[in-house]
Amino acid sequence: MTGLMAAPPALELSGVKYSYRRNTALRGVSLRIKSGEVVAITGASGCGKSTLLHCAAGILSPHYGTVRLAGQDVAALPEEERARLRRTKVGIVLQFGQLVPDLSLLDNVALPLLLDGHERAEAQETARGWLEQVGIADEAEAVPAELSGGQTQRAAVARALVTGPSVVLADEPTGSLDSRAGQELLDVLLKSARYRGAALVMVTHDNLVAASADREIRLRDGVIQHEVVL
Amino acid sequence: MTLETLVKLARSRTPADRSRIQLATAALAFSGALLLGALRIARLGKNELPETIYSNYVAESGLRAGLIAILVILALLTGGLAVQALRLGTAARERRLAALRLAGASSKQVRQLSVADAAMAGLAGGLLAGPVYLVLSLLLGLLPRMAHILPGAELVDVLIWIPVVVITTGAGALIGSLLHGDELLPREEHPAEQTRTGIIAGPVMIVLGLATARWLGYVASTVLIAGLALCFLSLTPMWIRIVGARLKRSNDPANLLTGIRLVTDARSSARMAMLLGCCGFLVGTLVNGMVSVLASRDEFYEPAFYATGFGMSVLGLLVVVLTAMAALIVGVADQLVDQRRQFACLTALGVDVRFLRRVIRRQLTAIAAPALATGLLLGAVLGLARLVGGAIDPFTPTMLITAAGLTAGGWLLGLLGGAAAGFLLRNQLRDALDPENLRAA
Amino acid sequence: MATAELVLGLLSAGPAHGYDVKRGHDTWFPDSRPLAFGQVYTTLGRLERDGLVEVVDKTAGGGPDRTVYALTSKGRDHLSDWLSDPVPPAWGSADEVLRKLVAAIRTGGDAAAFLARQRASHLRRIRELRETPAEDDPTSPLVREYIVAHLDADLRWLDSALEHISDQREAHP
What we know:
The structure holds 3 protein chains of 3 kinds.
Chain A: E1 11-20, E2 23-33, E3 38-42, H1 49-57, E4 64-69, E5 72-73, H2 79-88, E6 90-93, H3 105-115, H4 120-134, H5 149-161, E7 167-171, H6 179-196, E8 199-203, H7 207-211, E9 215-220, E10 223-229
Parallel strand pairs in A: 3-8, 3-9, 6-7, 7-8
Antiparallel strand pairs in A: 1-2, 1-4, 4-5, 9-10
Chain B: H1 3-11, H2 15-43, H3 56-59, H4 61-87, H5 91-102, H6 107-141, H7 158-183, H8 193-216, H9 218-248, H10 253-264, H11 266-295, H12 303-338, H13 340-347, H14 353-388, H15 397-424, H16 426-432
Helix pairs in contact in B: 1-6, 2-4, 2-6, 2-7, 2-16, 4-7, 4-12, 6-7, 8-9, 9-10, 9-11, 9-14, 10-14, 11-12, 11-14, 11-15, 14-15
Chain C: H1 3-11, E1 16-17, H2 18-28, H3 37-49, E2 53-58, E3 67-71, H4 73-84, H5 96-106, H6 111-131, H7 140-171
Antiparallel strand pairs in C: 1-3, 2-3
């Protein structure tokens, strides 16, 4: 590796701290995620894993420390740029509540592209490709309320990947699904991220999800308790 | 974002949102119609016109300018109603905006969506303004000639319709842009010291105004009204505390919840009560003035003339009253959105939309009815003459009957307002109780 | 362990050599430890003694591996009884992981480090299983899911054990 300019890690957190009013959720977390890596972040409830993910996604600004996406410091950017980053370089999948209820699946998946200024026809074509990739192309015209939890989560995965991000951040992606739907979603998520070459960071308390990662980082009380390579 | 995307994303509406846009469009349509009227009358030129065809207000060039001004003011006031309608937030809208932000919409883009949303309501309103104007002038045409303040339309008036559409669309966009900034900041609380000074200063100013009306004319009137406003502002919180305490001791859960919500929202309720009370007072004095003119046998007074003039003022004031009540309702709706998670939890306890409607109705009636009734009573009893320092007429039975009627009418209006709120907000209420609110993105 | 009843089940399709019984078992339970020949023949011998299985063919000059066994009607009844009875819930089994952990704590060893390593090992095994898809026959997916579910259950317990030990360590440093 010496003498080579190593590519910057897809995601890097250094000394990140975050507090909610009276309670400190993150007390100095540093980690580095390589491009294409699959990492699981685990820990008991309240250990700060969701907060960590939100800081990585640029939804929350850490009170201390830096977050770097492909080498670029996220917190230093103005709000407009951060939103653009969220659109193009980062894909986010949450447990629920992320699709716009009155848009069709196709429009929902195309949404990041539309917000980025692409023409509707072009955005929809790309979106359709991803709907096929995740296996719900038949439901393109349906609205979220008409679909099952597993299907909406797949749409969320498609939306996260539609702009070709370098990192996909997933917060309990299988949390609201039963074990069969959860496993199917996990497969879809892994396959899609690998297809895109994106790093995948999953916050989870589901061991099956954790088992599919290359590396597990366990948090406890806002700090990293241990890291294992799987 | 391309224009197509902007329209698509801004337009998409949940059912609870629809009433918000419909109200705003209606208000802007009315506003546009009034503007059309003003422009139409302006088109008549500066010369005198035959009083056999037109109303005096239109025919006499001196009065014409005043009429145009009044129509423009009324249009602005109705625009105020549109502001209240657009202020109406819904829990569904909040969830939708959260989902959009998650997909990467920046604050600027969300603002653009709000502006586009409101602008489209303005556009629709402007387009409706034409037909509304025609209907209004037709309706007024059924009244005696003096009341024909809207002189119909000719084909060429389609040309003045176009700028009106542009204005309403622009107004909508402006409102959308201004409102968006407000949403994010929490309102600040002012200390309660105001109450004590108000209770003393208010009545003092009222007495001052009454006493000096004969010499200081409109200045005295302004002092009187300002004093009245202060009284309402300071007394309402006390009233709320009394009513709230009594309700909280009740066995009826609806009353209990009403009492709690009254006390929580005391400050904005006091402001609304002040507005309602003052408008009620002014309407009361104007009606008093109108009655005395109509009852007078003096040939100098042409009843229709003054009736029309008073009528327009009353109309203007009613628009303000409606706007104030709308603001009150919107305040309640805002609470529903802010506290949607708490409300969603209530569903587990069997709270349904009907129950909440009862609570909302009682909450609004407790504020609106006394304010309106008191204002109207004071206004009708004091009379226009005392207000502006003119010749004071003694109390006649007609006056007292008018006063009683107005008071009852005011109370009724307050009750109706409460009931209307429950009806208008039914979608928002259903939305606030939706268990979806318990899942947060 | 019900190995005897399992063998009865393996013979229910028709008479077979001991070798076929072993092979059948390994096909039915592809992710488990293969059945040892010794165990097969011991079990067959016992079943024959109890009259649940009988010898139907003996190739001349062969040992037990040349014998063909078949179910008796008593054996068939026994099998169907076994298949219809529910299994009583297991006692807390003295699994080796449990034994190691208890011993580590009781003897003052580094339980947390052991738990972390055990956890990693379980996770790796789950990943192996999930990476190779199960055979597409009626029972292999079920077997796979059983194993994964139990590994998952073990992991959950390992998690709570880890939390418990960390709490204790913080309370009494």
